[in-house]
């Protein structure tokens, strides 16, 4: 059986209960709009605010969001995402990837 959960991660220590409810409504509305009859409630809401990697400034939100998503997909511990030098390196790697995307994809 497929797990039905919505998880919230926030590198700035916010609460995501309202956002998770909105996401659930969106998923339900899209399912009905597209004729899907397999949408079921309830969904588990998991607020990972306390275990989310924390940034130490207001300009790394995107980098933290992308790194958190990558670590979750690869089942890596989020404790390895830390502010400072590793974020600067991650930003450089992401920039390089985006600037060279056509080469990376063989286009």
Write the layout of secondary structure elements.
Layout (H helix, E strand, L loop, with lengths): L4 E4 L8 H17 L10 E4 L13 H13 L11 H15 L1 H4 L3
Parallel strand pairs: 1-2
Brief synopsis:
The chain is mainly alpha-helical and 107 residues long. It is built from four helices and two strands, in the order βαβααα. It folds into two domains: 1-52; 53-107, no CATH class.
Q: Please, how many helices?
A: 4
Radius of gyration, in angstroms, nearest whole number: 17 Å
> What structural class do helix, strand and pairing data support?
mainly alpha
Distance between the termini: 39 Å
Strand order of the largest sheet: 1-2
DSSP, total strands: 2
Order of helices and strands: EHEHHH
Global outline: globular
- The percentage helix is 40-55%
Describe this structure in words.
With 107 residues, the protein is mainly alpha-helical. 46% of the residues lie in helices and 7% in strands. The chain is built from four helices and two strands, in the order E-H-E-H-H-H. A two-stranded parallel sheet has the order 1-2. It is globular, with a radius of gyration of 17 Å.
């Amino acid at each position: 059986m497929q797990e039905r959960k919505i998880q919230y991660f926030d590198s700035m220590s916010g609460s995501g209960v309202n956002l998770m409810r909105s996401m659930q409504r969106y998923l339900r509305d899209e399912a009905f709009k597209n004729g899907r009859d397999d949408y079921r409630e309830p969904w588990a809401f998991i607020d990972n605010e306390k275990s989310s990697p924390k940034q130490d400034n207001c300009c790394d939100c995107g980098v933290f969001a992308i790194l958190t998503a990558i670590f979750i997909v690869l089942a890596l511990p989020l404790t390895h995402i830390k502010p400072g030098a590793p974020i600067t390196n991650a930003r450089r790697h992401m920039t390089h990837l985006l600037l060279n995307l056509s080469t990376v994809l063989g286009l």
